[in-house]
Every structure is written in structure tokens, then in C-alpha cells.
């Protein structure tokens, strides 16, 4: 299923977003609201509502999606687009996704969201772009942690009027907490309308401790509860009855909390908001030694040249209602001992904390300021979202990147873009949109919106730290180019093909160790792998330099296997087939059931989907991923050098190696081990009685460096056949007790 989310159907009239604003708000081309934030390592995250749609009725919101932004320097922000949308991911829920909370732990994203004002759920992903799954459904069999109607973990909303505005927090020991609530009822009036509940994560499952549920009271609390911690104190902030962010503090996260005072004053005081106030929402996070606060205001909608707003039915308003449309900003938070000082609103936003490195690949929606642009989010079920920059090129249109350190100099810019127009180009200027021209990039014509090509552009005069770099978009027609990503290069880097691991193609017939896929090349079409997420879940440092996202696991017997394999992940191997003919493919695999894969050669399938059986369960009734099975398929191959691709066609599985044996229905000469070896072939199981001839190879430092098959040859011959260099190695039998020291110096 593919959809395209129009994140901003704005700027079509009223000056096309010609904003006289500084760096706050963080985006000027679509409305955003209800921010929360988190920080992890080198990245600061902001989660927001998509606030573009307008019902044209005061205080009537139509919010169905969540957007996300990230930064490493607090000045240049990457817009990741609509990362989650109501009923898009899960089909029948949630109906709305208003103010949500975000936390990041060990690189994993945790978001708690409301379904309007009726319930609170959770989604998780290994990266901010998704894809997102529902751990509450997976762990508890219900959609929500709390809900006013329908099934939930706690069976209701504990009398709270508005079951919404959830926040999420992880304590130092890894324990998680969700806080939610708002509104008022006779049972739970304002001032006593928040609940907090504890959870833990066990084997990737979120376990809610429903017995830990506790009520929290603070004076005049209306909505937007948010938790953070500094030193020994926990801080609970909230939007009060007067739309001011107040807070309390406690040494116990479960309370009680002592009221302190105001931390974010009314947003009518925001410069450039023309005195327009209204509700607010907040988040606080520590990043690189500084504290930051995110909030929303009305400075974008009240500006002279604001974005247009449209209903989902396409009815647009040139002057949308001020109350309904907000913009998200960020400023530095200061402290007086353990107390938070009142936030000072600025147009400039936080100071840039480090120079921007242009020699990396960035999403094209990365900027510190924008003019006359739109964007769209492309979504495919089960995959990360793709966010695309679509300039309004018939007028002054640009993005700006700040504090760029070009070092010794950039000579090339590579832009990946689609182009369905005739005269579209991108110019690079310094200091201003009409400043010194560093280079011009004519965009190659493409076949459609989702056909992206690399465009190389010669650059001059870009060296040292440049304060402002402008990407200026030129063309006669709006929205006919779509920019996906860009990177500067010191010198033009020509495309480089992928290369076989170790410099030599795998031989067929023979064994292919799956962790030794090809070394990736550079440029379009030269990848050697695809991994659905950027998070490495493996326990090995093997190949962290050239394939950091591939999940490689070091097993207790010294093997390295490819694990955590999801649907559509793929790996490629350069192979050399000895001769035309039929072969039997055997693969050593483990799964929790339902997994499958196929093989292709030079883009043509050589197998149908090969089912992977469920591993046997351990004493805890959990799937034992150390229990490898063999699956087999007959294949026909042509002699010569080819690219073999392994593609997962269903979640989740591990794979150790593939063995090609000459002939149809051939006997496996590399059994998994022991006296019995379970093989699955076309749904029929059979056993082989054979001793393993496979040995893991370790260097003298104890690091596993590969494996060899001693069938028909001695250890020295096997090491040479497997392309090991001269030296002394330790060989340990796979699924056996034999080991030997081998001198392959001759």
C-alpha cells in the first residue's frame, strides 16, 4: 500500500510564505502544534502535531498526524514529515493523534499518543522515520493503556475527563513512566486530573504495571502533563487554567509534587505574535550540557505572509483562524539552582552549538530557515517514511543552512532529485539568497515524482566556515521538482561498484557465509545491502565500518550470523558459478515461525519464497534462535560471475550461511551438526547422520575471522581455499568438540 501525505497544501496564495521571521519557529511552511522533545547521544528530537487542516471553526481541531524534527546543532533542523497518521499504520485506530509524548532509549523511539480525548496508546520504532508498531497490542492484546471506552490495560481512564496529552519518561534505571490526563469532571476536577503509571520492557515487549497507577494533583492543572529530571528532582510541568506552563517538583517520580510556579509564560508575549495567545504545550530536554524548552505559539499564523490552510476536503482559507493554527519554537532554558527560570521567548532561537558538516548525506528538508517551499511525505506500509522537498520555483524560493564548515573546500554538490519540469535548477549562494554564486545544478529530467537521479554540480569558493548557505530553486513552474537528499564533496566522487568481500567472488558450488556480503560501493545502484532500520541490534562489532545498520550477532560458539532480519531486508554477494547446471541450495536459518526468503541472480528470481520453520522452544517456552534448521531448494545457475541477492519476504529470521551443492536434490555436505540434522525441503523433513566438517576459524587474538569446510581436504588446504592469508589459526568444530592449531605459513 502506497500513499502520499501532503504535509503542506499551503502557500498557494497570500504571498507564498514570504516570511519576515527569524529562526523561530522551526518551520515556516506548515503549521505545527503540541510539541514534546527528547535527546539521545548526538540528536535532539522534536515531536509535533500536524496542524495544517482547518475546519474554519474556532477551537475545533482536525489533527490526524504527527511530524518529527531532528537536529545535531540546534540551528539546522531536519523535517522528517508525517511519521505517523491516524488509521494509516493500523487501519482502524487511532482516530486522532493530538498532543503526544516522545522518549528515546538506546536509539529506539517511544511515542505515547492520545486517540482524541478518549484514550492513550503507544508506538515504537527503531528510527524516527518508522515504521511504527504497537507494542501495547503485541504485549497486552488491546490497543490502549487507558481508554474512556473500549478495552485497555487499566480498564478505563480512572475518572479523568480528557484521557489525552500523554508524556513518557525513562528513569536512570531504565524503568518507564507514562503520565496523562486533562479536563475536569466531578470526580476528577482540574487540579486533580493527572495519572501516572509505570512500565518495563522485557524481551522487546512493553509490560504495563497496572497496579502502579497513581493520581497526581497540582494547583490549577488543566492539561499537558510532562515529566523530566535534573539531579535528584523530578519535574512535572503542565498547562494551567490560564494557558500558562506551571510546574511542581518532587524527589519521588510518583509524587506528591510541590507546586513551584511558572516556567513558560503566556505565549501572547512571544515576539511577532501580535499579542495573540491561547493554549500551550511544552517539552524539556538536556542536550550537550544545555537545557531546551519547546512550545507552540501563533507567530506564524499572525504574520503578514502566513501559509494558507485547507480542510481535508480541499476547502482553503487565505486567513485561517488564529486559534486553530500554531507554530513550534524552541529556546534555551536556564536554571536558578534546582528551580527553572521563566523561559525567555526569542525570534533567534538557540545558539548553534557546533558547525554543520556538509560532507554527509542529508535529507533535502534540512535547513535553518525556508522561503516558498512545500513538502510531501511518501508512505509505504512497513517502511520508513520518505519526506520530499517540493519548491515553489516560479518565485523566490530557497532553504538556508547555517554555520557550515567546508574545511579545505568543496568542489562538488550531489543532489538526488526528481524533475518533471523543463528548466529546473538549484543554485548555491553564500550569505544571502542573492549573494555570491558558488555553483549551479541543472536537474536531470526524470520519469515521475518517485524517480530520483543524482545530479553533480561544480562548486567554487566554498571553504572554511560559511555563515549562511542558500539553496535557491529556479524554474518556471511550481512543484515540478522533488528534492530527496544532498551532500557536498571535497572532490567529485565518481560512482564505485560494490566489491566482493575479501576481494574474491564466492565460489559455487560452495559455502557462502552470510555476514560476508559484498562491500558496498558508492552512488546510485551500488549498494550491497538494505536494512529496514538504522539501529544495529547485533552484539558484534564486525563490519561496523562499512555496514553499520546490518544486525550481526556473535554466537556463543564463535559464529557470526545475520539476525533481526525483517521483510524486504536484502544482502548481495558476488559469486562465481563453476558451470551451467542444477544445484541444491541449503540455508542454515532460525525463526520464530512465519518467516521466508527468496534468492535472485542478477535481478531474476531463482527460487520462490522459501519458508523458514519455527525454532524449537526453550525451557521458558520462548523461541530458541540458537536452534538452526536447514531449508533447501533446487536452483538452476549459469556459469560465470553474478550478483546473488538474498531477500527476506517476511519478518523475523536469522541466517548463518548458504551452501550450494551440485545436482538436484543433492545431499548436504555441510550439516548443522551432531548425529541428526533437521532439514526442511518442500515441506518434507528428513535427517542425515553425519559428523560436522565445518570449523570456525579464529586468529591468535581470539577473534573469529570466518569458517572453513574440511570435507575432502586438510585444514591447510581448506584455509587456502577459503582465501585465508598466511599465519597461525585456531580451528574449532561447529557443533562438535574438536579443535586444532593450524600453521598456514607455507
Explain briefly what this protein structure is.
With 746 residues, the protein is an all-beta fold. 2% of the residues lie in helices and 45% in strands. The strands form 13 sheets. Strands 38, 40, 41, 43, 47, 49, 50 and 51 form an 8-stranded mixed beta sheet that branches.
Description:
- With 746 residues, this protein is an all-beta fold.
- The protein has two helices and 55 strands.
- Strand 54 (728-733) and strand 55 (739-743) form a beta hairpin.
- The longest helix is centred in the last third of the chain and has 7 residues, at 715-721.
- The protein is globular.
- It starts with a strand and ends with a strand.
Give short descriptive properties of this protein.
single chain, eight-stranded mixed beta sheet, 746 residues, mainly beta, 2% helix, globular, seven-stranded mixed beta sheet, 2 helices
Count every helix, treating DSSP H or I runs of 4 or more residues as helices.
2
Shape: globular
* Beta-strand percent range: over 45%
Summing up helix and strand content along with how strands pair, one would put the structural category as mainly beta
* Biggest sheet layout: 8 strands, mixed
Query: Mean pLDDT, as a whole number?
Result: 88
Helical content band: under 10%
How many distinct beta strands? 55
End-to-end separation in angstroms reads 58 Å
Q: What's the alpha carbon Rg, rounded to whole Å?
A: 29 Å
Low-confidence stretches: 6-21, 674-690
Amino acid at each position: 500500500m502506497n500513499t502520499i501525505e501532503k504535509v503542506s497544501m499551503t502557500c498557494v496564495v497570500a504571498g507564498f510564505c514570504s516570511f519576515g521571521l527569524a529562526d523561530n519557529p522551526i518551520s515556516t511552511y506548515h503549521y505545527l502544534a503540541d510539541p514534546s522533545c527528547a535527546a539521545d547521544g548526538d540528536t535532539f528530537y522534536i515531536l509535533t502535531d500536524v496542524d495544517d487542516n482547518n475546519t474554519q471553526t474556532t477551537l475545533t481541531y482536525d489533527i490526524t498526524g504527527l511530524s518529527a524534527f531532528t537536529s545535531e546543532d540546534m540551528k539546522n533542523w531536519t523535517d522528517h514529515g508525517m511519521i505517523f497518521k491516524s488509521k494509516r499504520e493500523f487501519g482502524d485506530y487511532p482516530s486522532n493523534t493530538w498532543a503526544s509524548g516522545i522518549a528515546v532509549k538506546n536509539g529506539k523511539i517511544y511515542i505515547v499518543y492520545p486517540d482524541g480525548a478518549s484514550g492513550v496508546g503507544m508506538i515504537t520504532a527503531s528510527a524516527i522515520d518508522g515504521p511504527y508498531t504497537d507494542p501495547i497490542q503485541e504485549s497486552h492484546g488491546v490497543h490502549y493503556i487507558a481508554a474512556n471506552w473500549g478495552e485497555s490495560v487499566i480498564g478505563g481512564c480512572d475518572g479523568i475527563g480528557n484521557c489525552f496529552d500523554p508524556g513518557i519518561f525513562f528513569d536512570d534505571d531504565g524503568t518507564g513512566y507514562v503520565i496523562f490526563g486533562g479536563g475536569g469532571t466531578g470526580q476528577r476536577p482540574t487540579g486533580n486530573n493527572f495519572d501516572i503509571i509505570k512500565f518495563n520492557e522485557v524481551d522487546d515487549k512493553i509490560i504495563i504495571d497496572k497496579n502502579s497507577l497513581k493520581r497526581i494533583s497540582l494547583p490549577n492543572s488543566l492539561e499537558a502533563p510532562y515529566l523530566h529530571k535534573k539531579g535528584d528532582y523530578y519535574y512535572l510541568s503542565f498547562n494551567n487554567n490560564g494557558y500558562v506552563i506551571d510546574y511542581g517538583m518532587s524527589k519521588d517520580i510518583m509524587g506528591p509534587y510541590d507546586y513551584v510556579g511558572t516556567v513558560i509564560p503566556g505565549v501572547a508575549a512571544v515576539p511577532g505574535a501580535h499579542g495573540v495567545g491561547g493554549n500551550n504545550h511544552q517539552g524539556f530536554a538536556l542536550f550537550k550540557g544545555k537545557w531546551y524548552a519547546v512550545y507552540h505559539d501563533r507567530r506564524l499564523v499572525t504574520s503578514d505572509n502566513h501559509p494558507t490552510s485547507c480542510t481535508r476536503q480541499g476547502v482553503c482559507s487565505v486567513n485561517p483562524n488564529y486559534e486553530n493554527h500554531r507554530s513550534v519554537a524552541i529556546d534555551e532554558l536556564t536554571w536558578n539552582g534546582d528551580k527553572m527560570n521563566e523561559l525567555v521567548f526569542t525570534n533567534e532561537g538557540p545558539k548553534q552549538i557546533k558547525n554543520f558538516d556538509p560532507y554527509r548525506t542529508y535529507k533535502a528538508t534540512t535547513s535553518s530557515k525556508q522561503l516558498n517551499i512545500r513538502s510531501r511525505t511518501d508512505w509505504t506500509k512497513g517502511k520508513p517514511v520518505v519526506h520530499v522537498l517540493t519548491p515553489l520555483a516560479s518565485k523566490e524560493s530557497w532553504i538556508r543552512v547555517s554555520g557550515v564548515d567546508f574545511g579545505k573546500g568543496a568542489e562538488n554538490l550531489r543532489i538526488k532529485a526528481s524533475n518533471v519540469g523543463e528548466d529546473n535548477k538549484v543554485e548555491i549562494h553564500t550569505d544571502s539568497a542573492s549573494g555570491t554564486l558558488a555553483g549551479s545544478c541543472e536537474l536531470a529530467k526524470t520519469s515521475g515524482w518517485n524517480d530520483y537521479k543524482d545530479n553533480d554540480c561544480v562548486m567554487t569558493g566554498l571553504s572554511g566556515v560559511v555563515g549562511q548557505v542558500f539553496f535557491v530553486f529556479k524554474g518556471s513552474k511550481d512543484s515540478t521538482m522533488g528534492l530527496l537528499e544532498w551532500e557536498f564533496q571535497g572532490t567529485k566522487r565518481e560512482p564505485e561498484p560494490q566489491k566482493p568481500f575479501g576481494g574474491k567472488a564466492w565460489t559455487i558450488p560452495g559455502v557462502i557465509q552470510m555476514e560476508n556480503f559484498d562491500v558496498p560501493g558508492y552512488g546510485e545502484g551500488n549498494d550491497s545491502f538494505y536494512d529496514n532500520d538504522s539501529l544495529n541490534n547485533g552484539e558484534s562489532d564486525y563490519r561496523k565500518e562499512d555496514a553499520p545498520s546490518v544486525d550481526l550477532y556473535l554466537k556463543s560458539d564463535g559464529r557470526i550470523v545475520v539476525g533481526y532480519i525483517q521483510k524486504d531486508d536484502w544482502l548481495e554477494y558476488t559469486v562465481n558459478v563453476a558451470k551451467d547446471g542444477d544445484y541444491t541450495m541449503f540455508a542454515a536459518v532460525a525463526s520464530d515461525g512465519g518467516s521466508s526468503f527468496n534468492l535472485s541472480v542478477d535481478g531474476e528470481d531463482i527460487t520462490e519464497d522459501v519458508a523458514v520453520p519455527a525454532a524449537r522452544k526453550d525451557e521458558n517456552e520462548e523461541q530458541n534462535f540458537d536452534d538452526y534448521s536447514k531449508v533447501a531448494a533446487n536452483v538452476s545457475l549459469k556459469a560465470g560471475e553474478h550478483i546473488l541477492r538474498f531477500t527476506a519476504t517476511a519478518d523475523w529470521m536469522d541466517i548463518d550461511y548458504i551452501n550450494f551443492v551440485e545436482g538436484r536434490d543433492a545431499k548436504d555436505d555441510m550439516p548443522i551438526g551432531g548425529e541428526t540434522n533437521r532439514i526442511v525441503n518442500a515441506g518434507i523433513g528428513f535427517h542425515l547422520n553425519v559428523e560436522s566438517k565445518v570449523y570456525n576459524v579464529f586468529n591468535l587474538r581470539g577473534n573469529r575471522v570466518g569458517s572453513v569446510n574440511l570435507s575432502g581436504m586438510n585444514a591447510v588446504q581448506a584455509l587456502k581455499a577459503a582465501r585465508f592469508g598466511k599465519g597461525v589459526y585456531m580451528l574449532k568444530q561447529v557443533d562438535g568438540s574438536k579443535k586444532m592449531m593450524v600453521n598456514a605459513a607455507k
